[in-house]
Amino acid sequence: MSLTPRIAIDAMGGDVGVRVMCAGAAMARHQHDGLRFLLVGDETRIKTALDNHPNLRAASEIVHTDKVVSGEDKPSQALRNGRGSSMGLAIDAVKRGDAGGAVSAGNTGALMAMAKLALRTMPGIDRPALAALLPSLGDNDVVMLDLGANTDCDATNLVQFAVMGAAYARTAMGLERPRVALLNIGTEELKGTDEIRDAAAMLRGAGHLPMEFTGFVEGDKLSRGHVDVIVHDGFSGNIALKTMEGTARFVTDLLRRAFTSSTRSKIGFLISRPATELLRHHLDPNNHNGAVFLGLNGVVLKSHGSADAKGVANAVHLCAELIEKDITRQVTEDLANFRRDSAA
After folding, report:
1. A Gene Ontology molecular-function term (predicted)?
2. For the chain, which domains are there?
């Protein structure tokens, strides 16, 4: 049964804050007029932003606070001082059931710590994971997790990430049996750490789950489209993500420099502009904005701090989709099936 999406927005988070968060929510509602919002933050600033978005104002309730978790706050500081902040109140709305999910562009570590404390991890999950959709050369995006929430992981953690990532791929991309792989330094069965090899052994015996474990994938194949879900610890995943983002910027900057180096190059740019625009669109992080904390008793999404209104709208859309398709229930059922069949 579809759930009505009401989303709590941490309006104070991100590099720009209220203006962009409200503009993104308004853009999302223009495309999905069933959305409703709790806008959490400074009431005066939110009301000023809503003057430009009457459609959003009609579907929103403001929760006032002038307290903000800064980008410099450590997770421990956020846990001590974040109660009553825009981030904290948005998460509390999910805990109370006043919202089906929350979106924040604020401090990632603080958001993770506060969400985990308030919502707790799901039964059968030892640690939540940060998952995101990234572009690939395949027919769909690729899910990568964990992207930084857990630097050290054992085999059980990796298996749980795989189960959650597959459920996420089915929800966000409509795949019946997502192809799942573990990030490794080689594709041979003997490669990698004990934790990775043990996780692979457990996943090979999980044929009853709605996913297909394909083995190992190397770093140079992350975006080829050969798999749908790539699983790794947060340390490796964060390095891989930042490397991919840096490479994308390197390629676009290199093309820009090449196309402006001479008159002939500028003419060549005009001829090839449709192709370069397609490339720019495909690599634009705003088109893939929104990382979800999987494994919590509630939906919490992290928007990139530098996201524009389109990026925030994409994060809001993703949050609404995860609420409507009840991602928490899907993960719970998959984990229960995995534990039952493994025990049998």
Report:
1. phosphate:acyl-[acyl carrier protein] acyltransferase activity
2. 1-125+295-325 (3.40.718.10), 126-290 (3.40.718.10)
